[in-house]
Protein 1
Amino acid sequence: MIGALVTAAATIVAAVITAVAVGDNGKPAAQPGPAASTRPSATAPSPSRPGSPPAAQPVQSLPAQDPAPEVSANPRIEANPDSGAVGSVVTLTGSGFASGERVRITFHGSYSADWDLRDVTASSDGGFVAEIKVPATYADDQQKSVEVRGLDSDKRADTPFTVTE
């Protein structure tokens, strides 16, 4: 009796598998898997038979442009040029400060005291551009640095600078 039930169950399972694998027209049915194309074809026929599967929907694409980069939370400074003689003009470009924050520019020597050159105000995006003159105090052909410090946030950044004669 148990053998007959197992045989009957196996026969029913085999019939279901066959019905799923072969379409109602006797041809193999489409197998699941990735579609060959994710874009709808302009010439592809739309399903006309009732009960047919719906046409494939196009895959959403990513935005055409990357989102704007985030402003760095760390302050940065760049000197252009990064070396110069006493009295030469250097352009400093800084970023990473709070909007409207006062930023102090300081020249550091190897063994000398620091020399506060000037204060600037950061723009609405936290950046600034300022010109400084290399002070005469540091005319010794040594590598120095220029430091910027946010007076409210105390955020700091520096960049090397070589004084030439």
Protein 2
Amino acid sequence: MFTILFIVLCPYCLVQIKKQFYEHKVHNYLIEEIKYTEGDIQSIECQWYLGGLPNYSVDVIFTDEPDVVYIYFVHHKEHIGQFEHYTIYGKTLPPEQLKHYKPYDY
């Protein structure tokens, strides 16, 4: 019984740990490198996609732009970048209408 429970819970726990890791990495990137304050960030939430590339992405919403979700990813655990954005209504706005548009520089 314990073995079955372990086999079922282990992958779930691994995903949750990785999600927290990526949320933390993006949070530190925004605060330490981009110089946002805690008050600038409304929410940070990591998403996991089974079979997606990337498998993990981090959605960031800023307090002064609550209708826009900026999507960040952590490439090789060191390079962090913004690679997409959309409104909560499903629209993509042109970059000149966005306050926090900083695309990843490959």
Protein 3
Amino acid sequence: MINKMLYKIIVLDIMELLLYLPKGLIYGAILIAFLILINGLLHRFRKYQLVSLVKLIYLGLFVAYIYTLLQQTYFSRPPGSRNTVSLILGETWQGGLQSKAYVIENILMMIPFGVFLPNILKPAESIFCCIPLGFFFSVSLEYAQFLSQRGHMQVDDVIMNVIGTIIGYLFFVTVKRLRRLNKYIIEKK
């Protein structure tokens, strides 16, 4: 019964998050269109491309993701509405169902970060770059929430965000290795 209620809370929170996604996708599409134009001009006059089409798509999706994430975690909240600080590890999980949902949602919200970033930035293909960037992004968001009092500053959020980044990164690595294996099998035939 508790798991069902927890699942329902998470789904409702995600549905709220999806309200921001269309605008984020529009911003991502505008960026893609602009960069395709720049790529076309560079190719025409200099015979090279700035970015591949696949990277452009990942970049557009990353922009949509970051916009949606920032709307949900920062801009949709009035300044001064939240002013607590928790540096106690595991404190959030000790709360009610909504608090437990927040813990799970903090993991889920950073999975795309770990997937998209290594597809955009070559250095982020390394775990020693991607995970620290996820940590830095999370700490920056928590600090901004603290300064503006738009969110509760919690060490649990940072840890769950890093776990989400790691899961996303592992997904990226798995897909990359499966592509290599597939290419190897095709070349062997």
Protein 4
Amino acid sequence: MTRRQYPAWLRRKRRGAADRDDMEALAIALAAGDRAGIRAVLHAHAVLIVDSGGLIPRSAGPIDGRVVASAGLAALMTPETSVVTTSINSVPGLVLVRGDTVVAAVTAESRSGLLTSVWVVCNPEKLRHWNRGPRL
């Protein structure tokens, strides 16, 4: 009997991706505006990468460290922003919504139950397909 081998594209997407519980904990902390809660789900050496499409000049490079990364994530939230957990590229993720418009998509990698790398896409060109009618 041979062991089933999953296709390479499927193996890559699962490796290192944060699980749904980690992303839900981040969603709860973001929705509550709880910076301590955001820091609690991040690894001490977490990296935040923001793709703003040039709209946020300060996001030119990765942001290193739990404290600075948590502040960067908290800055994305406004009183009108809601957080929805969803699947992004076959891995658990978050979508930040203001009104009827998706303003950010968030995915992460985790290790030992803490998020080590967090990617935030705020680039309107890359979020266009999220804003084309019924979603989520």
